[in-house]
Amino acid sequence: xxxxxxxxxxxxxxxxxxxxxxxxxxxxxxxxxxxxxxxxxxxxxxxxxxxxxxxxxxxxxxxxxxxxxxxxxxxxxxxxxxxxxxxxxxxxxxxxxxxxxxxxxxxxxxxxxxxxxxxxxxxxxxxxxxxxxxxxxxxxxxxxxxxxxxxxxxxxxxxxxxxxxxxxxxxxxxxxxxxxxxxxxxxxxxxxxxxxxxxxxxxxxxxxxxxxxxxxxxxxxxxxxxxxxxxxxxxxxxxxxxxxxxxxxxxxxxxxxxxxxxxxxxxxxxxxxxxxxxxxxxxxxxxxxxxxxxxxxxxxxxxxxxxxxxxxxxxxxxxxxxxxxxxxxxxxxxxxxxxxxxxxxxxxxxxxxxxxxxxxxxxxxxxxxxxxxxxxxxxxxxxxxxxxxxxxxxxxxxxxxxxxxxxxxxxxxxxxxxxxxxxxxxxxxxxxxxxxxxxxxxxxxxxxxxxxxxxxxxxxxxxxxxxxxxxxxxxxxxxxxxxxxxxxxxxxxxxxxxxxxxxxxxxxxx
Length: 510
Ligand SMILES: [Zn+2]
Fold this sequence. Notes:
The protein is 34% helix and 21% strand. It has 510 residues and is of the alpha/beta class.
């Protein structure tokens, strides 16, 4: 019913009268390489091992791409897509979704101008927005499998997924699959939609650089694979098209450390606690398990919260040693008689401060509460490699619930940038660019104006005189830019906070 209402709103879009005509025809494609680093790529280009990246560099420009803090994928990819700093766009951590983004992306804006725009596994694009004549296939931080248009679902044969990977060999296999399948899938989607502007992101380099940094042969194989995939994408483009390649951060050696992650969906469901069906969501299971209990009737939500807490606190090894340290962060106002004691409130305060300082984690006050389960490393080490965990009254193989990773690589603040094709000069010297400059550059290369709330600048010195003469870089008021429709909460035929919260969670309403 809600989806029907959405469609019934119609998409009365197209170029706004104050913005002038658009320049159609050519394609502008951003290929994201999460974790791509010049420290790895330059030596491989020098030995001739990356023919496709080398060709883009030779035909166009390369730059050290200055990134933004914190150096984590959802934050930086959102700055790349919006041209805005994290303070402005509001995506601070891995728990956020597209619903938390406060400003539009350049992709949404170009779609609102009538351009055919497609996004394939770009972060953060869940929940998928309707882009007129375009498509959105959300990236790996998605909470469900929906795509837009819904009819596209049957045509998307490949999606990158980290859920359920239990060891680094499985991460390696997963990376190989992305390298083998993603470019072809992207090319089919782009062709089917006669795409004008789009983005596709590869995550293999990041996933394996964390885990195999001290095994250069694996990093090499992965970067060579991504280079081949970029070659497939370039091959499908014409001479009038432009390709941009960017990463969100580089990589460097880090201290060797254990990282635990959970795959608790199945065991929670076995215990009668089904994410999304019941009023909670799993926000994260990497490094720490974070569950969000949705806002709603206090007593009901409190009972759910206590069941979740109990099942996690009860998870133990055979000797009864707990495998999690469980905390609750209250958000809903607690009625008289349900107040927490001073020690509990102090512990919650300390945990919030720690989460903010250490992980830049911001908890939304519009939840009922959060459950935070930290892995008990000492107990879990004793269970490796194939111990058992008691969870929700059942015995599970540890590897089905919790996996052990070892990290040797860390993010580095210098990312990569390359561009070539229509409008881009060949510049042999490596330049400097900010992640905030990518969105305005995409707009300019698409022959579109740049909204004046974008913080970055268009590097006009890299554009050809011919292109600039035909498409002078223009700044226009963001307030005059057409917007994609969203469903306002007031248009919903509900006044039930719980249903509204579920719709929000499902992405139907902001
Ligand atoms: Zn990473």
